[in-house]
Amino acid sequence: LPGLHVFAFAFALEVSVGKTNTVMALNNSNVLLPCTFTTCIGFQDLVFTWYFNLTEMIYHGKIKSKASEPILVARNPRVEFVGSTTGKDNNISIVLKNVEFSDAGKYTCHVKNPKEKNAWHNATIFLTVVQKMVETDNTVTLIIVGVVGGLIGLLILFMLIKRVVLFIIKKTQDGKKECLVSSSGNDNTENGLAGSKAEQKAPPKA
To answer: Which position has the higher pLDDT, 90 or 134?
Structure first.
């Protein structure tokens, strides 16, 4: 059915930049911009292009087949291709050299496979350029964790003390009840009240 063919083509090729789409680089350093693609129907004469902010082309290459490596068509002098398509992964990653603050922005990896009726697929990376890497200050986090831990500890201690106090009170009350029952029984016997075991005196002889 035509509909099924369209569905298969739409999901035949997938482009990915990894688990995260954000990259941070130091000023004047080199940064890797990763990109891989997968296809379930194979590829031939595949074309891939890297764009900066969707307008400036910084690398353009072609791959004849799975058995051949990419061929350079055009590139920015500061961009180097570091991928490979003859291995396990179809890697079309690049390295941007001598990063400047003006290089910060969106980098998009476009892939077109003629076997998919020349449909374009893409993935995007956001690059941030900094003067120096700032270490994360975990002091506040440690303080919060310490306070929360302390509160939990106090709560557990309070609950234990409460259980001990309730246990002591219960034992004390049980002891008092036993004393009252024993005392009540003695009084009844001594006073000869109903239910007592006091012996009755025999009537006097005539």
So the answer is: 90
